C-alpha cells in the first residue's frame, strides 16, 4: 500500500528530502551512448540543463545530485518562506517560465524557440488570486518540481527515441532527512553512487555528481582566482551551498540568480564535506580500503560520528532507511510525532 507523502512533508513547511527516480523497467534510458534522432546533446547533459532551469524558478534548493544511466538522486529542500516573499506578478512570471503554455520538450526537439508569454498574459494570471494561491503552493512542492523535471525529459527522450509509453517509473521514492546526520548520510550516498557502482574510483572522476561539479569549480577558482568574482559562471553555481553559517538569517534568496537561495545545509564547509566524502569513498572502494587514519579531521568530532560507522551506514542506506533518515534519537522523535498526528484523537481536535 502506497504511503501518502503528505504525512512526511508539506509544501507549506520546510523539509529536506532525498528523492530518487528510476527509469521505467530499470532500463538504461539515460545512457549517453544510446542513438538519437538528429543532433542532440548527451542525455545527462540535457537533464542537467533542465535541472539548472528549474532551480532558478522554483522555491526549492538542490544540494546534492547524481545522474546515473538508469536513475537519478537529489537532495532537496523546499522553501515556502521564499514563496511568501514573491509578489503575485513574480509568481506568475516564474510559473510561465516553467510552463510557458506550449510543449517545451517538443520545441527543444525541433530546435525551435518558443514565444515567451506576453506581459498582458502574465498580468492577467497575476490578477487571478485563486490561481496564484495554487501556484505559490506548487512552487515549493517537491512533487510539482519532479513533475516539471520528469515530464519534460520523458517527452523529449521519447521523441528522440521515436518511442511511446513510460520513460520513468510512475512514482519517485522519497526519504525525509530529519537531522544533520541524515542530511550528511544522504549526501554521501548520492555522491558515492558512481564509486559504489564501480563506475569511478574517486569523487573527482565521478561524472554527473554534485561532488564532481564542486571539485571542478574549486579547481577553476584555484587556477583563476578572478573567477570567484563571477560565481554564476562556475559549474556548481546551481547547487545550494554546503555550509549553513551560524549568522544565516532570513530566506537568503540567491545572489547569483542560478538557484533558489544561498542557504546552506550543514554545519561544515564544502571543503570539509569533500574530506568526509573522500575518506568514506576510500573505505567503500575495494581497491582503496587501506587503514583509517588514527587522527580523523575534527569534522567527525563535531558530528559525533566515526568514519567506519559512516561508511557502513552508506553501504546499507537503502535497506536501513525507508522514509526517514537520521540519528536514532531523531528518528524516534519523528516517528512519535507522526504517530500522534495519525491517532484518531489528534484528528478530532
What keywords describe this structure?
16 helices, alpha+beta, 349 residues, Alpha-Beta Plaits
How would you concisely characterize the structure shown here?
By secondary structure, the chain is α+β, with helices and mostly antiparallel strands.
What's the layout of helices and strands?
Layout: E1 16-22, H1 43-57, E2 60-67, E3 71-78, H2 80-85, H3 88-98, H4 104-110, H5 119-127, H6 129-138, H7 142-161, E4 173-177, H8 180-191, H9 193-196, H10 210-223, H11 270-284, H12 298-303, H13 307-315, H14 317-320, E5 324-325, H15 328-342, H16 344-347
Parallel strand pairs: 4-5
Antiparallel strand pairs: 1-3, 1-4, 2-3
Helix pairs in contact: 1-7, 3-5, 3-6, 4-7, 8-13, 11-13
Task: Report on the architecture of this protein.
The protein has 349 residues and is of the alpha+beta class. The protein folds into two domains: 16-79 and 140-327, Alpha-Beta Plaits (2-Layer Sandwich); 86-139, no CATH class. It is 46% helix and 9% strand. The chain is built from 16 helices and five strands. It has a five-stranded mixed sheet, with helices on both faces. A hairpin with a 3-residue loop joins strand 2 (60-67) and strand 3. Helix 1 packs antiparallel against helix 7 (142-161). The radius of gyration is 21 Å and the shape is globular. The protein starts with 15 loop residues before the first strand and ends with a helix. 35% of the residues are buried. The mean pLDDT is 86.
Amino acid at each position: 500500500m502506497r504511503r501518502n507523502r503528505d504525512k512526511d512533508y508539506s509544501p507549506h513547511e520546510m523539509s529536506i528530502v532525498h528523492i530518487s527516480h528510476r527509469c521505467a523497467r530499470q532500463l538504461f534510458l539515460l545512457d549517453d551512448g544510446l542513438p538519437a534522432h538528429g543532433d542532440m546533446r548527451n542525455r545527462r547533459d540535457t537533464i542537467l540543463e533542465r535541472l539548472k532551469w528549474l532551480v532558478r524558478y522554483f522555491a526549492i534548493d538542490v544540494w546534492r545530485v547524481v545522474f546515473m544511466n538508469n536513475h537519478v538522486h537529489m537532495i532537496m529542500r523546499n522553501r515556502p518562506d521564499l514563496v511568501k516573499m514573491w509578489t503575485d506578478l513574480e509568481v506568475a512570471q516564474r510559473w510561465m517560465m516553467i510552463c510557458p503554455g506550449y510543449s517545451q520538450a517538443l520545441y527543444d526537439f525541433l530546435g525551435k524557440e518558443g514565444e515567451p508569454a506576453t506581459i498582458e498574459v502574465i498580468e492577467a494570471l497575476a490578477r487571478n488570486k485563486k490561481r496564484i494561491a495554487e501556484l505559490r503552493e506548487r512552487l515549493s512542492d517537491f512533487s510539482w518540481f519532479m513533475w516539471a523535471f520528469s515530464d519534460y525529459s520523458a517527452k523529449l527522450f521519447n521523441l528522440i527515441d521515436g518511442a511511446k509509453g513510460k520513460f520513468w517509473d510512475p512514482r519517485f521514492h522519497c526519504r525525509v532527512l530529519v537531522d544533520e546526520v541524515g542530511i550528511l548520510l544522504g549526501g554521501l550516498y548520492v555522491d558515492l553512487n558512481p564509486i559504489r557502482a564501480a563506475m569511478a574510483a574517486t569523487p573527482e572522476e565521478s561524472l554527473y555528481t554534485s561532488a564532481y561539479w564542486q571539485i571542478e569549480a574549486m579547481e577553476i577558482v584555484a587556477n583563476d582566482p578572478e573567477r570567484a568574482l563571477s560565481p554564476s559562471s562556475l559549474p556548481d553555481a546551481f547547487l545550494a551551498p554546503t555550509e549553513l553559517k551560524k549568522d544565516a538569517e532570513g530566506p537568503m534568496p540567491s545572489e547569483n540568480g542560478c538557484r533558489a537561495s544561498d542557504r546552506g545545509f550543514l554545519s561544515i564547509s564544502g571543503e570539509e564535506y569533500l574530506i568526509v566524502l573522500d575518506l568514506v569513498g576510500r573505505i567503500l572502494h575495494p581497491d582503496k580500503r587501506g587503514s583509517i587514519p588514527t587522527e580523523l579531521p575534527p569534522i567527525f568530532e563535531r558530528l559525533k560520528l566515526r568514519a567506519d560507522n559512516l561508511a557502513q551506514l552508506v553501504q546499507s542506506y537503502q535497506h536501513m532507511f525507508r522514509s526517514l533518515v537520521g540519528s536514532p534519537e531523531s528518528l524516534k522523535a519523528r516517528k512519535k510525532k507522526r504517530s500522534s498526528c495519525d491517532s484518531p484523537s489528534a484528528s478530532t481536535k
